[in-house]
Amino acid sequence: MFFDIGAGELLGLAVLAMILVGPERLPKVAVEAAKMMKKLRALSQTATAELKENLGPGFENLQPADLHPKTFVKKQLAHLMEDKPMARTRRPEARIDPDLI
Description:
By secondary structure, the chain is mainly α. Helices cover about 55% and strands about 0% of the residues. It has helices spanning about 5-20, 25-55, 70-80.
């Protein structure tokens, strides 16, 4: 599910919201929360589009998840390593461009 929230946790959050907000105001709060999520989604899509535009050619397929440091490093180093399986007796040599360092 969304943000790794299971059905039990979602039900617990709904009950907690009902207690804190009250059953009379809960529909209005839910509508406002949905509007805010819609605005946040539009904002993130706009920011991603502007980032792609400002980075220029070569970044057309950029995804926000690609900017996570661990994912970024894995993608950058993937093409530097040989596709051969690792031998037990010899460590594979990385092909690193000195201009990248």
